[in-house]
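Hi everyone, sorry if this is the wrong subforum. Our group has a chain we'd like a structural model of before ordering constructs, and none of us has done structure prediction before. Sequence below.
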Amino acid sequence: MKHSKKYKSYFTLIELLTAMGIFVILMFVIFSFFSNAQKLWSITNKNTRIYENARIAFEVIGRDLQNAVANENIKFLDGTSGDDELYFVSASADSEEKSKLLEIGYKHNSTSNTLRRVIVQESTSTSPSQWDFYNKDDYYDPLTIKYQTVINGVETLIFSCLNSDLTAYDVVADFDHVPGLVAISLTLNDSDLLADGIPEALRAKSRRTFRKVIHLSNR
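Answer:
Right subforum, don't worry. Here is the predicted structure as tokens:
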């Protein structure tokens, strides 16, 4: 009688090493995929925030400018303002949603990389006069005047005022009426990249410049 022999098959060392190599490669590919997906999501999220900040800034500034007023007693723009500042009187709603004349100022704070909005109310019978016609030293004293941060991540801000015929708005000759239009150039970036020590090459990849023209019709 012949007895059949059963042989058990085993993986050889080479086969085991090959399988482990393939497994490591697959894990590396999967890890790279999820890592890249996470980076893409992070970049998309930051870009979305930058575009949203631009929308908010233009919407807030545009709303105030559309209600700007000027005459022989109220000038539109303080003549000492820089290109990154804008001051005017506007018939805008205050924090209580009441329509009244307000001094409004916008300024780029290069230290905190923010766009700031400042409001000074007109005099009332129940409160002392706060309407100081563009006394900017008081505007930015946090102990006396309340100011708001509109958006973060602001690298540069430039206001350009023009008449309806596209000539330059002269704050001396044209002070008694509002400009025909205000052009705004706003350069934004991810706030985290504006910290000290961040390479410029990295900042440049995230930097975006937005421009908007707000028409006022020299009224």
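For your construct planning: The first helix runs from residue 13 to 66. Confidence is low (pLDDT under 50) at residues 124-130, 136-143.
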